[in-house]
Structure formats: C-alpha cells, structure tokens
Design a protein that fits this description.
The protein has helices at about 1-25, 70-80, 135-145, 200, 260-270, 285, 315, 320-325, 330-335, 365-375, 405-420, 430-435, 465-470, 485-500, 500-520; strands at about 50-55, 85, 95, 115-120, 160-165, 170-175, 225-230, 235-240, 250-255, 275, 295-310, 380, 385-390, 390-395, 395-400, 425-430, 450-460, 520-535. With about 550 residues, it is an alpha+beta fold. The strands form 5 sheets. The protein has a 5-stranded mixed sheet with strand order 7-8-9-1-10, covered by helices on one side. It has a 5-stranded mixed sheet with strand order 16-15-17-11-18.
Length: about 550
C-alpha cells in the first residue's frame, strides 16, 4: 500500500509538472467543444475506459457519512453510502433504499402527520454480504442523536420520538411533533444529507469521531467501495460489483486533491483529469474554452453570501450590519466575477423555489446611507475616513477558504468596497476542510472564529432554512453560525415546519424572508448556479439540487 501511495504521489507531481510545462509553452488544443447548450464539436478522446478522474479543491476530514460537513465530503461519501430517499436532476424525490417515498396517499404518512412508515428493499447487502435492515436505519438515527458524535446538524432528526422496527424491512418513525419537510429530510436530500451506516460494524463504539472506519471504510452499500486514501493527495474507489441497483458502469473513480482552481483548470485542459468538482463561477471564462469539456449547469437551492457573526458585540447592532450590506455593490460583483452567468440575489431562497418572496428586499447599494448608519451607531470618521468608536477602529476579520478562486476575488472586492465607507477589513484564509469542519473537530466557522465569512451555501430540495436561523440550531446543534436568534423568527419557523399545507407554509416563508431582509444576518450576493465541468465522453452525469453523485452507478464512458 505504501508503494502504491508513493507512486500515486509521484504521478500527481508529474501531472502538475506537465501542466506547468504546457502553460509555459503556450499549448493550443486542436479541438473544442461547447458548453451544455452548445453546438456539435470534435475532440480527441482521452478518457480512460471505465475510469473517472475527479479533482476536489479540498481534502475531506472523514469518510464516515455521519460526520460530513462539506459538499466535497458529501460527494465522496455518497459514492459509497446510500440514503433512504434521493432526488433526481429535477429535484423530484425518488426511492433508493426504500420501495416508495412515504406519502399520505400511499399510507406512508399518518393522517395526523406524526407517524411515517418506510418499507426497505429486501435485496440490499453491505459489501461484506451482511443484509441492510431496519436496524441499520434505527442505529444511524441514534448515532446522529448521540451527543458524543461530532455531527454538524441534527435538525429534522431531533423531532423523532422513537423508531420501531417490527421486521427487517419495516421502519416506523414516531415524531414528537409535526415536521412538514420530514420525508425530504430524514436520510434524504435535506440541507444536511445523511446516509445509512452499518450498525453491525459501528455499534460497538461509544462514538464514531476517531475510529479507523473514518479513514478506511470496511463496508459500503453504494455503487463504489473504498480502496485507498492518501491524505492531502488522493482517494481511490472501485466498483461495488454487487450494488443492488445494478453493476456500476465505471470500474474505478480516482479523486485527486488539488487545492488551486487555476491548476485544476490546466489539468482539465491537458486531459489529466475528467471532472472538476464544483468549479467556482470565476473560472467560467477559462473553462468555456477548454476542448473536450462540457459545462453542466445546476440550479441549486443555495447562494454565495457573507455570514455575519452576531455573537460579536459590534455586529449585534443591526445598523452596523445594514451599513455593511449597503456598502456592497452586488451587481458589480456579479458583473465582474461571473460573466453574467448568475443572478443577483435578494434572499436566501432562489426565485424558482415556491418559498421565494418577490417583495422581500434587503438593503440596496448606498454608500452614503452606510456611513449615516455607522454614525447612528455611535461611530465617528477619522481624518483618513475610517470609522472608530471610543478610540477603537472598526476593524473586522473576513475569512474564507484558500482554494476557491472566486472567494478570494470576492473578498478583495468587498474589502475595497467596505474601505470606501470607513470599515477596515482584514482577510484571513483557511483550508476548506478546517474552515467547515464540525465544532468538535476544530471547525473555524462552527466555533465562531470570525467576524464575517465568505461562503457558498447549499440547501436541500425543501425551502426549510430552520437549521440556519432558529435559536436552538446554533453550533454544535446546527448551521446557525451567525448566532441570529429572535422569538419572531422562531415562531415563524415553527409555523412553517408544523403545517403540511403548501399555501400555509408559503405564507410563513414569505414572512421569514421579509424578516431576514430586515435583520440582515447574511448578505446574499447571488443564487448558486453551479457549474460542473466534465469531459464530453462521460454519460449519465445528471446532478440533483443537493449532490452530484446521487446516480453514480449510471455514469459511463
């Protein structure tokens, strides 16, 4: 294994050397291909038959799906483990481990909305031959709720009172209270997707935070199985020939860790990789010229934004938050960084989602108003135009990840915009796996070690945003990293989650979006239109609004 790892590391270094040589020599490709909506083109085939070579911008912290805290981890873990319910490329729920999606019509949801029944497929086995049963589902829920485990969020799982398993194929979930998005949350495509994990392998541990399974999973039920992980370099997966939905079309997936997007683009250009995972929008100008690559666009329930840490006394003042928002020219950021491929956002829910409120309007770009708000908050501009109060300069730390080219440029532009209104910004970069890690694993975001954070947010197929904005969902219990907490928001969220009627839920979300526009805990820059550059020879790639690898067994060359 060490020899194989060493060869692999040498291989990556060689690829990077080739990329540098190509760039220096002015390599010009002899063929081209348009993006997804484009015209016919010719190209020289370079894909390795039955192999997909992927570049991730960050290493993962764990291969245990219970500890996932980033989209990169979700992508990798989903290749090995499956949820009860997924969603297709249109966001429509589809059964995976279950026979059907529970509903009132098929008897899966009780009339009072407090009992949900799942019927598991009977042909599913872990890769060691042990059958996957209802006990795996119940144990996985217990593991998520175990306070000793470093899970990022328990939203939607904490409403479960108990789970009955009358037989190996039946799971009966009893809720403490009505929870409208439950079916799309419980081991499904929520804003914190979890997969079912093997009870027979993991149940003997008091917690799963520091076990060997996290770095080398011994079993899987997904289309691929673990082969090797060399930290910071690569992950190798092989086809699970016994996968219950059919033998995967690919034999192997090779995942390289390349923490620089410009390098990754050159790897695509030289055909050293086939797929660049979640390329940031600022790379579009380069990517659209890469021969033999198509760009698959994926409208997601997500956004690019700046979270504000309200646990900081200076940022608890709504006038300061509104001043920051008023100083940022979103239209200029979109114009400068995205080549017009995304829309300026007005709220966290995108305009194609049924919870979107067209009347919710956050502060508009108005530098003069920003300075007035700071004066109202007790700040005074010095001779250099920078604001201070009681002799202390208004200086904030803006953090982001080191790999994403778009994030770096946004931070630089935002820093300049805020300086023009007298706010001093210091930018700090972190590796993405550290920035987004669970609080118990030292995560910068979830431990609140920031004033402002530039990040992408990806939610689920339901407009439920309670994990970000309810008081009870502050870390380590959820994604409320802004520490935004009001009784009004909690009441509206409770209303949205307790009503199964769509019209009633829409009214609640309209009010929620108006409240967020007023209080401004997050500055939403644009809605996520994720670009996924992949070689034209690969077929079956159809990401859903939550994860790209949901149908990986269908991928083929």
């Amino acid at each position: 294994m060490q020899v194989l790892a060493q060869r692999r590391r040498v291989g990556i270094r060689k690829l990077l050397f080739i990329v540098c040589a190509v760039v220096v020599s002015g390599f010009v490709a002899c063929s081209k291909v348009s993006d997804r909506a484009g015209v016919s083109a010719t190209y020289a085939g370079w894909a390795q038959p039955g192999v997909l070579r992927v570049a991730l911008p960050q290493d993962v912290k764990s291969l245990n799906a219970l500890l996932a805290s980033s989209t990169a981890e979700g992508f990798v873990e989903r290749l090995m483990f499956e949820p009860l319910i997924s969603a297709d490329e249109h966001g429509t729920p589809v059964p995976i481990l279950v026979v059907s999606v529970p509903s009132i019509d098929n008897g899966g949801i009780s009339a009072d909305g407090l009992t949900i029944v799942y019927h598991l497929r009977r042909d599913i086995h872990w890769s060691d031959g042990v059958a996957l049963t209802s006990k795996d589902v119940r144990w996985s829920w217990h593991a998520i709720m175990n306070p000793a485990n470093n899970v990022v969020a328990r939203n939607g799982y904490d409403v479960v009172r108990s789970i009955d398993t009358p037989d190996d194929a039946t799971v009966i979930v009893h809720l403490k209270k009505r929870f409208a998005p439950f079916v799309n949350t419980f081991f499904a495509e929520s804003d914190q997707p979890f997969e079912i994990m093997p009870e027979h392998v993991l149940s003997t541990f008091p917690n799963v935070n520091q076990i060997s399974f996290n770095t080398a999973p011994t079993v899987s039920d997904g289309p691929f199985r673990f082969v090797e992980w060399v930290h910071g370099d690569h992950i190798t997966l092989a086809a699970n020939e016994q996968f219950f939905l059919g033998r995967p079309k690919l034999k192997q997936i090779l995942i390289s860790i390349v923490p620089d997007e410009h390098t990754t683009v050159q790897l695509l250009r030289t055909h050293a990789i086939d797929y660049m995972f979640q390329a940031s929008i600022n790379t579009y100008k380069e990517l659209k010229t890469v021969p033999g690559v198509k760009i698959v666009w994926n409208n997601m329930n997500g956004y690019q934004g700046i979270e504000i840490n309200l646990s900081r006394p200076v940022l608890r003042d709504r006038r300061v938050r509104l001043a920051i928002a008023s100083a940022i020219d979103k239209a200029e950021l979109v114009r400068t960084l995205t080549d017009g491929m995304v829309k300026v956002a007005t709220e966290d829910l995108p305009d194609w989602m049924w919870g979107f409120n067209p009347s919710a309007q956050p502060p508009s770009f108005d530098p003069k108003r920003a300075r007035e708000l700071l004066r109202e908050a007790g700040y005074t501009a010095g001779p250099d135009g920078m604001f201070a109060r009681n002799g202390e300069r208004l200086q904030l730390v803006l953090v982001t990840d080191v790999a994403d080219a778009t994030h770096k440029k946004i931070c630089e532009l935002v820093q300049a915009m805020l300086k023009t209104v007298g706010i001093d910004i210091r930018i700090k970069f972190y590796p993405a796996d550290l920035l987004y890690a669970p609080a118990g694993m030292g995560g910068i975001l979830h431990r609140g070690i920031f004033d402002l954070v530039m990040l992408p947010w990806y939610a689920g197929i339901d407009p439920d945003n309670s994990s970000q904005f309810m008081c009870r969902n502050m870390p380590p219990n959820g994604y409320n990293d802004t520490h935004y907490c009001t009784s009004e928001m909690d009441r509206l969220q409770a209303d949205a989650l307790s009503h199964y009627d769509l019209a009633a839920r829409r009214r609640s979300y309209f009010a929620i979006e108006r409240l967020l526009a007023r209080d401004n805990p997050i500055i939403i820059l644009w809605w996520q239109r994720q670009q996924e550059p992949i070689g034209v020879e690969f077929k079956g790639f159809a990401p859903n609004p939550t994860v790209e690898s949901w149908n990986a067994w269908k991928w083929r060359t």
